[in-house]
């Protein structure tokens, strides 16, 4: 069997991460990157770029399209549209809207005879899998999800909207004290403030009132008011030198009991130097699964919950049983 | 739909754990425990006991048999025999013999029109799943499995065979230093000695030569010679008071890179106060999956690699997407 033919839709951080992840998987081949920009501007990178409007010409050529757009406006339109033509994988992560997104994609994919894996990545994605696994095995227990340490794009944007702020970045930091309590067997009810801290690094405009900026940030409703927030003023040079990475990660922990109060703890954790590259690596593994499910004749929308891990690997069932079981 | 009707075969620590786990899952019902002992001797416990030879009479009544025998001699015979009559779940854990065991159970289950999930539990089982997931997402990387801190039955038995030893227990202890090196992003080649320590607690017979016992243990080939082993002599009272639990656990860690050497770490860990109760809880969740797969008309052997997590949960797909994704 030949290599899996993959297309990437969108060439931001996630799309670039998918390109790099595909290079690590010899059973896959990147056919083209589809973009809303003028593809000529991007042509020098050794990858074939196409305008998104040309996607239809690749029907029958591309096995799976990896959709790397954003959840706010791109994916709600893109996934159903492209699922009518191709198998797809995406990282739609607006938790509250997943049910309606699933229905829309399911209908479109079935109409096109394709298979779409929605909402992969690590949360939703690997973290969701671990929440499900842990509560299925320990029905009597309490589950926790912690995020970080990592950059939150939404909170960084919120900082940058404060008057007098020139640039800034916000890190979500899980409370080590809370995690240690849970690891030691406690099942505390934790408030928002007890679970995560927010660390802000801010470049102020010249002459700006730093106290006023700090006050505006730490009291900002929804974003910071419910958290213990620190604001550190730094120079533009420091921001460039120390805060350009996109680290992230977190923990899914379930503390349960079996029998006569025997404590049992299941923990899954990620520590990522590049959030977009890791998310893209998950998308690529699920692209392999999408192609296989489609080849079996399956159609419609799937989530990570519906897909056996064997489908993520290029190895055969016999190899997996021999080497990894 | 009525409750799932479950049978348990074998009533040692694992079988008793399965009984307790079933009590935590309201969609399941324990019909009977099958044993090679005289069932009358066990009848007082509020559970229906049957001799193993009566199992056949439960065809059409029991949906899934949870096989709680040992891997050395019980399961290689029991699983194929019972798979001809019932859907089964077992925890066969002799890694090297899994391929032939799979083939034997697959043939028997297909012959009987049943579905058998083999080699569940946590290793093989949940640890295997995490090894597969992590290498599928981070193909460029190194994977590690650490076990413990926990009681190793085989090593405890080995201690008790040393002349002059009255009783004893052995704990496998993962090297915290090795784990921290990996967590910090290193991918060391670790020797056996560098990965785990072995802590032995020994009750000596009166007048026995403790130095000779210690020497016999720490130099014992296969079991202790390749490890840093400590031997602590304790009283029979201390053994009773402090070493009757069956704790275990461990870690599966993969350290990989994406793109231009971005380090990415995936870690799964368990901390268990009761190894058999936890293993049994995994078996029970996979019993639910076995029943569902069988109801779909699937037959033959399956491993954890072949089963989507959604099948482990009593919740519907829509509930899972809404609550856990």
TrEMBL record, chains A, B:
<dbReference type="InterPro" id="IPR010190">
    <property type="entry name" value="Diaminopimelate_DH_Ddh"/>
</dbReference>
<feature type="binding site">
    <location>
        <begin position="120"/>
        <end position="124"/>
    </location>
    <ligand>
        <name>NADP(+)</name>
    </ligand>
</feature>
<dbReference type="GO" id="GO:0019877">
    <property type="term" value="P:diaminopimelate biosynthetic process"/>
</dbReference>
<dbReference type="InterPro" id="IPR036291">
    <property type="entry name" value="NAD(P)-bd_dom_sf"/>
</dbReference>
<dbReference type="GO" id="GO:0009089">
    <property type="term" value="P:lysine biosynthetic process via diaminopimelate"/>
</dbReference>
<keyword id="KW-0560">Oxidoreductase</keyword>
<feature type="domain" description="Meso-diaminopimelate D-dehydrogenase C-terminal">
    <location>
        <begin position="121"/>
        <end position="274"/>
    </location>
</feature>
<keyword id="KW-0457">Lysine biosynthesis</keyword>
<feature type="binding site">
    <location>
        <position position="248"/>
    </location>
    <ligand>
        <name>substrate</name>
    </ligand>
</feature>
<feature type="binding site">
    <location>
        <begin position="91"/>
        <end position="93"/>
    </location>
    <ligand>
        <name>NADP(+)</name>
    </ligand>
</feature>
<comment type="similarity">
    <text>Belongs to the diaminopimelate dehydrogenase family.</text>
</comment>
<keyword id="KW-0220">Diaminopimelate biosynthesis</keyword>
<dbReference type="Pfam" id="PF16654">
    <property type="entry name" value="DAPDH_C"/>
</dbReference>
<feature type="binding site">
    <location>
        <begin position="68"/>
        <end position="71"/>
    </location>
    <ligand>
        <name>NADP(+)</name>
    </ligand>
</feature>
<protein>
    <recommendedName>
        <fullName>Meso-diaminopimelate D-dehydrogenase</fullName>
        <ecNumber>1.4.1.16</ecNumber>
    </recommendedName>
</protein>
<keyword id="KW-0521">NADP</keyword>
<feature type="binding site">
    <location>
        <position position="147"/>
    </location>
    <ligand>
        <name>substrate</name>
    </ligand>
</feature>
<comment type="subunit">
    <text>Homodimer.</text>
</comment>
<feature type="binding site">
    <location>
        <position position="198"/>
    </location>
    <ligand>
        <name>substrate</name>
    </ligand>
</feature>
<feature type="binding site">
    <location>
        <begin position="35"/>
        <end position="37"/>
    </location>
    <ligand>
        <name>NADP(+)</name>
    </ligand>
</feature>
<dbReference type="GO" id="GO:0047850">
    <property type="term" value="F:diaminopimelate dehydrogenase activity"/>
</dbReference>
<dbReference type="InterPro" id="IPR032094">
    <property type="entry name" value="Meso-DAP_DH_C"/>
</dbReference>
<keyword id="KW-0028">Amino-acid biosynthesis</keyword>
<keyword id="KW-0547">Nucleotide-binding</keyword>
<feature type="binding site">
    <location>
        <position position="172"/>
    </location>
    <ligand>
        <name>substrate</name>
    </ligand>
</feature>
<dbReference type="GO" id="GO:0000166">
    <property type="term" value="F:nucleotide binding"/>
</dbReference>
<feature type="binding site">
    <location>
        <position position="275"/>
    </location>
    <ligand>
        <name>substrate</name>
    </ligand>
</feature>
<feature type="binding site">
    <location>
        <begin position="11"/>
        <end position="14"/>
    </location>
    <ligand>
        <name>NADP(+)</name>
    </ligand>
</feature>
<comment type="pathway">
    <text>Amino-acid biosynthesis; L-lysine biosynthesis via DAP pathway; DL-2,6-diaminopimelate from (S)-tetrahydrodipicolinate: step 1/1.</text>
</comment>
């Amino acid at each position: 069997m030949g290599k899996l033919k993959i297309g990437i839709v969108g060439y931001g951080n996630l799309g670039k991460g998918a390109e790099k992840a595909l290079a690590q998987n010899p059973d896959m081949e990147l056919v083209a990157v589809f973009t809303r920009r003028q593809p000529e501007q991007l042509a020098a990178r050794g990858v074939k770029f196409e305008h998104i409007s040309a996607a239809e010409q690749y029907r029958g050529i591309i096995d799976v399209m990896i959709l790397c757009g954003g959840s706010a406006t791109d994916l709600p339109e893109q996934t159903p549209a492209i699922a009518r033509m191709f198998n797809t994988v995406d990282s739609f992560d607006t938790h509250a809207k997943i049910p309606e997104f699933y229905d829309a994609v399911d209908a479109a994919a079935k109409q096109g005879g394709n298979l779409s894996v929605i909402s992969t990545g690590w949360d939703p994605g690997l973290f969701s899998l671990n929440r499900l696994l842990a509560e299925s095995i320990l029905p009597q227990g309490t589950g926790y999800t912690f995020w970080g340490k990592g950059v939150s794009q939404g909170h960084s944007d919120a900082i940058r909207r404060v008057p007098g702020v020139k640039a800034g970045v916000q890190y979500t930091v899980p409370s080590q004290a809370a995690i240690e309590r849970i690891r030691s067997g406690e099942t505390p009810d934790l408030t928002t403030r007890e679970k995560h801290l927010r660390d802000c690094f801010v470049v102020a405009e010249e002459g700006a009132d730093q106290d006023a900026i700090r006050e505006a940030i730490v009291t900002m409703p929804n974003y910071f008011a419910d958290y213990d927030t620190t604001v550190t003023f730094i120079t533009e040079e420091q921001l460039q030198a120390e805060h350009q990475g996109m680290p992230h990660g977190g923990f899914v922990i379930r503390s349960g009991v079996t029998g006569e109060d025997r404590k049992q703890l299941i923990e899954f954790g990620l520590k990522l130097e590049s959030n977009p590259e890791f998310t893209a690596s998950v998308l690529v593994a699920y692209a392999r699964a999408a192609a296989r499910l489609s080849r079996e004749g399956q159609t419609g929308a799937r989530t990570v919950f519906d897909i056996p891990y064997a489908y993520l690997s290029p190895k055969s069932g016999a190899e997996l049983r021999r080497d990894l079981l």
